[in-house]
Amino acid sequence: ESRVAIELFFATITSLYSLSSAWSIRRTLLTAAKNFLLRPGNPNLEAIRVLMQDTVIDANISDAGLASHIDKIRENALPTEAELKTWSPPPSEEEKVMLRQKARKLLVEKGMPQALTSVMGQAASGEALGKVFDALQIEEVARALMFALILQGIKAITQ
Question: What is the pTM of this model?
Answer without folding.
Answer: 0.48
